[in-house]
């Protein structure tokens, strides 16, 4: 084979290889564009978790703050907590959140699947989102309650105050969840049963005694 033919053959092989690689690249690019379009469509159909909440800006900040502490994603839901989760249903919202919260995206890359499963990651995340939203609703309901002058507290008033105290403690823990300040976040009893209720009961008994004396 002459030198000219060898050069021609080499060029033809190189050209064919280049065309093959270019075709593969274009195919991969088209697949990525299609995948991205599907994710965008899912995100558009999904509402971000803080959308429509009372005090939406505050709720948004608290939810975005969850990704500042990996413990919020690693800590399992407390036993007995009333919370239902379905990954398939939550996926569109998850995709939408990842586009907004880059820190959460980085945490997911770091933790899944090395430390936890993807489903567990999202279950823990949406549970704490749920707590933040419940806290916002409680705060709004409290703010809208009419404030009346207190004359004499009855046992019923004492009971309401006791429940309010427990609710405040729940909201305090939820606030810590969003800030990532405590390793025990969200480990309180789901029914609001916290230490200190015995003091409330003693106070209620004293109040009843004082009312009897006044009678």
Distance between the termini: 123 Å
Percent of residues in helices = over 70%
Estimated structural class: mainly alpha
Number of helices: 8
Q: Which word captures the global form? A: elongated
Largest sheet: none
The counted number of beta strands is: 0
Summarize the helix and strand pattern as letters. Answer: HHHHHHHH
Strand fraction: under 5%
Low-confidence stretches: 148-155, 181-197
Classify the oligomer.
single chain
Round the Cα radius of gyration to an integer and report it.
29 Å
Report the average pLDDT across residues: 75
Main attributes?
mainly alpha, 8 helices
Q: Would you mind describing this structure in some detail?
A:
This protein is 70% helix and 0% strand. The chain is mainly alpha-helical and 215 residues long. Helix 6 (118-144) crosses helix 7. It is elongated.
């Amino acid at each position: 084979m002459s030198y000219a033919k060898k050069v021609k053959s080499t060029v033809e092989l190189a050209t064919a290889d280049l065309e093959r690689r270019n075709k593969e690249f274009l195919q991969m690019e088209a697949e990525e564009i299609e995948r991205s379009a599907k994710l965008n469509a899912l995100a558009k159909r999904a509402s971000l978790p803080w959308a429509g909440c009372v005090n939406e800006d505050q709720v948004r900040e608290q939810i975005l703050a969850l990704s500042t502490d990996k413990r919020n994603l690693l800590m399992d839901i407390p036993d007995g907590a009333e919370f239902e989760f379905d990954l398939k249903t939550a996926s569109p919202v998850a995709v939408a959140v990842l586009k907004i919260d880059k820190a959460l995206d980085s945490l997911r890359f770091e933790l899944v699947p090395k430390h936890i499963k993807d489903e567990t990651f999202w279950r823990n995340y949406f549970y704490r989102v749920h707590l933040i939203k419940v806290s916002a609703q409680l705060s709004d309901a409290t703010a809208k309650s009419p404030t009346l002058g207190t004359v004499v507290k009855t046992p019923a008033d004492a009971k309401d105050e006791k429940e309010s105290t427990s609710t405040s403690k729940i909201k305090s823990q939820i606030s810590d969840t969003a800030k990532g300040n405590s390793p025990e976040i969200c480990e309180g009893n789901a029914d609001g049963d916290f230490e200190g209720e015995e003091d409330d009961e003693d106070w209620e008994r004293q109040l009843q005694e004082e009312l009897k004396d006044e009678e």
